[in-house]
Amino acid sequence: MRHKSLAEFGLPVELAQPHAPVVLFDKVCLAFDEKVILRDVTFEVRAGHTKIFLGASGAGKSTVLKLMLGLLKPDSGTIWVLGHRVDQMDEVQLMGVRHHMGMVFQEGALFDSFTVGENVGYKLYEETTQPLHEVRQRVEEVLGFVGLSEHIDKQPSELSGGQRRRVAIARAMAAKPTLLLYDEPTTGLDPITSLTIDAEIIKLRDLEAVTSVIVTHQLRDAFYVSTHQASRGPDGEPLISAAAEAKVSQADFVMLKDGSIHFEGSADDLRASTDPYLQTFLS
Amino acid sequence: MSSPRQDWAIEWLKQALLEVQEYVKLCVAAVKGSVSRPFYARDVMEQIDIIGLGSLTVVILTGFFTGAVLALQSGMTLDQFGARPFVGRLISASMIKELGPVLTALMLAGRVGSGIAAELGSMMVTEQISALRALGTDPIRKLVVPRVLAGFIMCPILTVVANAVGLTGGWMIALTQLRVPSGIYWSSVVQGLYIQDVWMGLIKPFFLGFVIVTIGCHVGLRTTGGTQGVGRATTNAVVAASVVVLVVDFFVTRLLISIFF
Lengths: 283, 261
Known about the structure:
The structure holds two protein chains of two kinds. Chain A is α/β, with parallel strands linked by helices. Chain A has a domain at 7-11 and 22-100 and 177-273: Rossmann fold, CATH 3.40.50. Helix content of chain A is 35%, strand content 27%. Chain A contains eleven helices and twelve strands. In chain A, α5 (132-145) packs across α6, α6 runs parallel beside α7 and α7 packs parallel to α8 (219-227). The N and C termini of chain A lie far apart (50 Å). By secondary structure, chain B is mainly alpha-helical. Chain B has one domain. Chain B has helices at 4-34, 41-79, 87-125, 128-134, 139-176, 182-191, 195-221, 226-260. In chain B, α2 (41-79) packs antiparallel against α3 (87-125) and α7 runs antiparallel to α8 (226-260). The longest helix of chain B is centred in the first third of the chain and has 39 residues, at 41-79. Chain B is elongated. The N and C termini of chain B lie far apart (53 Å). Classes of the chains: A alpha/beta, B mainly alpha. The A-B interface holds A 3, 66, 69, 71, 91-92, 95, 98-99, 101-103, 105-107, 109-112, 122-123, 126-127, 171 and B 38, 40, 126-128, 130-131, 133-138, 142.
């Protein structure tokens, strides 16, 4: 058994149908004391699609991801994730939903007392009954996927910033999640390293069929992820190439401004927008 | 209309009540987590090693020198009444009933309370706690329960060690400085103790170990504000745990006296 199913956690199994919404926010509001973080935020993310949240610092982008995971509760509005209303769930029920999700945190949030391998296999070691040799096999597999197999026994402190992000991606994908959330995955990285992270996100989306929600203010990376696709080459190696029209249309952009959705649309819509705020952001 | 000073006082009171509420919730969750699954036994053993064996040196040194200085000081006073042979009685009563449990707890508050607050605080500000939750692990069960159980189990054991070493320190001073024969010292030690005293000395550390660790965890898990926040949390944990150790010691002693005597 890979890990406990939703049914074993006492939850109905209502995983979304292909291209049905896996995430649905309906008029979600959140404030900390007097400060409004999100105001009437409504959007949906469809299975296999990519949703990219843009916005200035403090616009509420990371909060959206934390609400999806149930790390925060909204003041009002409803949040559906993988067919479950997470805004009404308690922590125990949320654990069941989280088993089908992964999150890549800003700066990676790797456990600094564990090795790279232990970090990647954490969920499988601690929260499943999977035999140890199978866990080790999966850890090697995902580390190979992100090109870090040789670092399995190193401490996170021995890795570069880019490598730590890739380990965080490997950790998030180890338990084969349905939905992956990325919180500023390329912030603070040089352009070349950022491209390798973007490639990992594209590979996971297209080769592992993972729905992606990305929070970033790096426009270059956002456009790269939305306009490229991954496929297997003749030798089985992943190839990144310009995406077909249909694939590009599966990536949506959401611009948050002062806690509200200021823009929602495709990469082309965003580029074509004459809105002064968007123009400032794009310039 | 209320004055700014009243507003500040009300705000302070609300914050204090919120802290107490959160602390009580953490304690309840820790107790529940100790008796239900999932249970991280390996982490409990690891914490027993860190909290228990790791604190052994400091507890032994504290116990030994407390017993020794107690013998030196009380020897001089007892001399005035020609009661030097009763030095063992005084040391055993002081160490086992009060100084052993309290000094051990204060040492643990400094070493363990600060360590827990710093570790969990760092995990909070680097989002490792959020990452744990995102990976489907309850941080209370994974991080708090093992530490609480280790503190609860190891504090009494360390207290017994401190008591034994303290009595030995007293004996060495009694023998070498006060010229009290070993036989008289040890028989005096035994005569000075009632079984109720021993129970009191053994029961109190369970409470003290629990509050030290839960305060460390509570402060650590509420850390905000980056590295500066971690430093602040560490200081707060030590100060709060040290004061609460003395307060809890008073009330538990009062309770035990009413039960035993």
